[in-house]
Amino acid sequence: PFFMLPALILLVGAYLPGNVHRLTPHPMSWGVVLWAVGHLLANGDAASLLLFGSLGLYSLFAIWSGNRRGARKAALAMTIDRDLVVIGVGLLLYVALVFLHPTLFGVAAISGL
Fold first, then answer.
1. Domain boundaries, the chain
2. CA-to-CA distance for 85 and 113, rounded, in angstroms?
3. Distance between CA 43 and CA 35 in Å, rounded?
4. Ramachandran angles phi, psi of 11, nearest 5°
5. Are 5 and 90 in contact (CB under 8 A)?
6. How far out from the chain centre does Cα 40 lie?
7. pLDDT in tens, the chain (113 residues)
């Protein structure tokens, strides 16, 4: 669960305006990498390795490929209120996924919930 909050903030930041694009031109891909790493650390079976490992490697390739094409960080700074919205939506999505994970995927994201 520790990798998922920053992963979801990066995923949300890829679609909502904010300063995350000043950190990286690939916030969604970095979010998928964090998601994959978090799930690989939690699950060691072959199916998880295939699913999360392949998606994580694909995202790393997408980042590398985008950098080779000349993807650039955003230069224009935005106000912090945009970042607070991105963080808030990411946090809401995180809480929803923690509680819906057993229903959606059949296993609790945090044991005991």
1. 4-105
2. 27
3. 12
4. -65, -45
5. yes
6. 14
7. 789 999 999 999 999 988 898 888 999 999 999 999 999 999 989 999 999 999 999 999 999 999 999 888 777 888 899 999 999 999 999 999 999 999 999 999 988 76
Extended strands (E) in the chain: none
Separation between Cα atoms, residue 7 and residue 45, nearest integer Å:
22
Beta-carbon neighbour count of residue 3 at 10 Å? 18
Maximal CA-CA distance, the chain: 46
- Name the residue with tokens 């699913």: 51
For the chain, the residue count is 113
pTM of the complete model:
0.89
